């Protein structure tokens, strides 16, 4: 998740979905020529520029290509696999982390992943409530992740406020891949492999 770009600072967030592609909100977009930064866990910065963009139809998703690949220490987000339901059912009640424009992370609970549009609710678990928060204007485009074994699974990018909601990346994965291929071919969305997890419990 990029924390900064040289046109809008911490606003208009972009999230890596391949070494050469980002995803963000169509209604709060980035554009060609914008310099966008990514940072690894050690604080090393990888700057790129947006080379081109393409909006998806009928949803608030836009894809951008970068002028070159991010460095190996920067890792794109993965998406849900085709067989996610075998492992997490409809996902209702799972803990979700959502970034805001200040790079704070809020904890919420997922309503489910079986629709075109995904949304969260405030945590009902008392131990989670301390980490909840409200999405406000300017947070659009920031990512919402399901985290499993230190890997980020991108569910959606923020479209509106409250606890957070946006169009499902899983549902629109084929349209997203098509846009990626048109902008810069040779890169694929990567699905999380649940088969590697032997002790998955919720």
Strand order of the largest sheet: 1-4-5-6-3-2
Count of strand segments: 12
Quickly give the structural class. Answer: mainly beta
Q: What Rg is obtained from the alpha carbons, in whole angstroms? A: 16 Å
Distance between the termini: 25 Å
Description:
The chain is mainly beta and 202 residues long. It has helices at 84-88, 173-183; strands at residues 4-5, 15-16, 21-24, 35-39, 45-55, 62-66, 95-99, 105-110, 117-121, 143-148, 151-157, 165-167. The chain is globular. The two termini are 25 Å apart. The model has no long low-confidence stretch (mean pLDDT 91).
Describe how the helices and strands are arranged.
Layout: E1 4-5, E2 15-16, E3 21-24, E4 35-39, E5 45-55, E6 62-66, H1 84-88, E7 95-99, E8 105-110, E9 117-121, E10 143-148, E11 151-157, E12 165-167, H2 173-183
Antiparallel strand pairs: 1-4, 2-3, 3-6, 4-5, 5-6, 7-8, 7-10, 8-9, 9-12, 10-11
Q: TL;DR of this structure?
A:
The protein has 202 residues and is mostly beta strands.
Keywords:
six-stranded antiparallel sheet, mainly beta, 202 residues, 2 helices, globular
């Amino acid at each position: 998740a990029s924390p900064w770009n040289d046109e809008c600072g911490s606003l208009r967030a972009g999230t890596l979905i391949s070494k050469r592609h980002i995803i963000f909100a169509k209604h709060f977009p980035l554009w060609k020529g914008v310099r966008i930064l990514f940072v690894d866990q050690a604080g090393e910065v990888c700057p790129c520029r947006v080379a081109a963009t393409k909006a998806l139809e009928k949803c608030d998703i836009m894809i951008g290509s970068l002028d070159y690949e991010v460095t190996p220490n920067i890792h794109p987000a993965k998406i849900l696999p085709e067989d996610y339901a075998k492992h997490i059912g409809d996902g209702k009640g799972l803990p979700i982390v959502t970034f805001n424009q200040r790079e704070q992370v809020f904890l919420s609970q997922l309503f489910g992943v079986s629709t075109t549009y995904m949304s969260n609710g405030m945590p009902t678990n008392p131990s989670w409530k301390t980490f909840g928060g409200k999405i406000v204007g300017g947070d659009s485009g920031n990512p919402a992740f399901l985290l499993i074994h230190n890997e980020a699974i991108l569910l959606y990018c923020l479209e509106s406020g409250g606890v957070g909601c946006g169009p499902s990346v899983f549902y629109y994965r084929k349209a997203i891949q098509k846009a990626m291929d048109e902008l810069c071919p040779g890169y694929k969305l990567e699905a999380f492999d649940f088969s590697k997890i032997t002790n998955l419990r919720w």
